[in-house]
Fold this protein.
Amino acid sequence: MGDNNTFSWMQIYQELAGKLLGWRDKQNDLIEILRAAAAEGHLVGNLEDRDQKGRRFPLTVMDPFTFFATFNRKVGDKSRLGILKIIKEKVGIESPLPIDFNGLPIMSAMKAWFFSFEYEREKDAISSLWDFATAIVTQKPESVPEDLFGRCLGIRNVGLANLTMGMFWMRPDVYVALDSRNRAYLSSNAIKVSVKDWKSYMALREKIKAKFPGDGWPEISAKAYKASTEDTATEALAPQTARYWMYAPGPRAVYWDEFHTSRIMALGWDNVGDLSAYSDRDAIQRNLQKVYPRKGSPNHDSLALWEFSRVMKPGDVVIAKEGQSKFVGYGIVESEYYYQAQRPHYRHVRRVNWVKRGDWSSGARKIVTKTLTDITKYPSYVAELTQLIGIDGADMSSSNDELLPSKNIILYGPPGTGKTYKVRNEYMELFTDRQAIPTAEDRATELVRDLTWWEVVAIALLDQSGNRAKVKDILDHPIVKARLKLASNRSPANTIWVALQTHTKDDCPHVKYAGSIQPLIFWKDENSVWSIDAKLVNAEMPGLRQKLDAFHKPPAADEPVRRYRFTTFHQSFSYEDFIEGIKPQMGNLEEGQLAYEIRDGILKEIVKEAITNQSKPYALFIDEINRGNVASIFGELITLIEDDKRLGAENRLTATLPYSREEFGVPSNLYIIGTMNTADRSVEALDTALRRRFTFREMRPERSLVPEISGLQIDLRRLFDVVNSRIARLMDTDHCIGHAYFMEITDIHSLRRVFQNKIIPLLREYFYGNPGKIGMVLGEHFVSRLIDKVAFASGAWGIDELDDKEVYSFSDVTELKEEDFASIYAEASPSV
């Protein structure tokens, strides 16, 4: 709109800023002006506040910056002019409407408040914003109280970008905006943006003035806008749709082996916490300054964290680098961002399919030092790297076929090869939705999973007005509906009647039921309206009220939704635990009473969930699957898990369950993924029915994952090879020791702990009653033969054959030195 040098908006913006100061005590009137604009169809943003329970009510507070933000958002010039026209009339502005908006930075259309909802709003947020607005409009910069700037920066929804934009809107002749577009432009002109307080902001203004003599702040902002538009146009011309990222897997690629094996990429700055909780990059930057106060400017760090968690997408290409001169591989991003709190370091994670690893020199061109860099805007450089590394466009359609080759999978291998680790860190993430808000139905299903029918009915009645309702109203409650969905009940009304009558008070004249069971909490009146003794329930069964409160609590944003179950098979695990069984009621029974109910097993539970949401994949993880009696646990249902026998498949099969008499089938969106330790049982020894219905993926000990510890005079990889070669000769390869035991080693002390607590106990289990074989594996520094034998007491004991029995002694591992461990492989052939 208009000539680039017009800046016709400045006059009305500055007049409005001065006029607004007189409306501090008329904030409701300002809100009414915005409501009038909204009534005419203009987009002014949210005008409703919210309390802690999520209930909405009309907004009653307003500050000058938020008021300006209503027409400085991504709403289009037509709407901006429409809002300004109404404000001009209502406030009494004499300046003409603008004919351009050149150089004006704008906020997101969704987040234009400078304050939070009422339940989390700082007490002085509104007053601080008014005080600061008054100061910047009426005083010279050097007279503005420094603490006002800091107070406003500390408000939850403000941040440096928003606050300086607001300052620029009101006094574009005095203050520079530090939004992302302007910061990028300043950075490209060798001006480092590092603002912590009012003094550093003022110092930055002077640097910018010296760099751009003769330019005002609107001119600089307009140039920044033009530069960003050109960058966007260049990016749009690039042939690829995916973004390309340069990435350092730790300093000097120290974590490259770990990340490559685990199929992830990860960032540090762990003390910042889950990045999903931050509303914008400025919030991340503020917290970085708090938790890492001794570091320099967190500008690059906050950008890396923000782009890693919000900008990067599945399908993007990641090029891993080592230092400034070498590339070590590339991969395709496979997941959204997630925070993995259990990791010891680098907890900000995405799954990556690392397609290729190698060693490619960058030549004369130095690689950027930043941890994460979006290089998409440099298509010629991307093309150069694509050719250098051999990035194949066909890899861009990365899928999970490698992890999920079939619906039924068993990971098998010796102990310590990372089977359970792979399940928890790779497979479970495939069945986890992050950055999602659970629906009320999801939350209800989760709450009722382990509740009996009387407990579900009690919660529903506690949630009714006056704690009273008829059966049809109880049936309509979402908690009851969720329980019915899990139970696949054919006569829900009858189920509710039985639960109510079974737990009705003995003196109720309208219920005659001989088999009453504690707790007796329900009552039925002459009109067939049921009620609950809420006082008794709250006093003696507070868990029910807590369940109800949890159901009504607003769900947390970014709460993960897990579409899987995890269990471990063992010798006593049964069909009743897995499918369904008759279980006794364990509590609330009077002495001498006994009651039973049909309870769903873990497979039946996850099957029901998968059937109700067939657009998403679900999984049942079974650890140590070979330790249970599979034929007994699966029973007649082992056939139903085959791909072509599942619900919806060509040869669909169902079975009638023995207790509930329900028809049961396995949906095609359910994966069954197990692990087995081959030291316990070989694959060949498994039940034939199980073997032919599962895809087996072997996980072998990985020598390359054994660390090489600087300062430790022991070749851990050589030790690892020799120990496993000897075990294989004495037993078989199924009993080798996995690399996971060695990955914990960092020094001689941790090496001793691993041998004392893990490796030697495992070998003693393998060679139970024959310690000499442990000596054949580890050598005489660990196991020694006793030469001097104490004679048996005299007498005719008939024990002559014991004179030749060898007796062995184990060394105290905590006293062993590095040369003792090195002796394990000292005499071994170099080829081992």
Q: What stands out?
A: Residues 464 and 473 are 9 Å apart (CA to CA). The chain has 30 helices and 25 strands. The mean pLDDT is 83. The two ends are 77 Å apart (CA to CA).
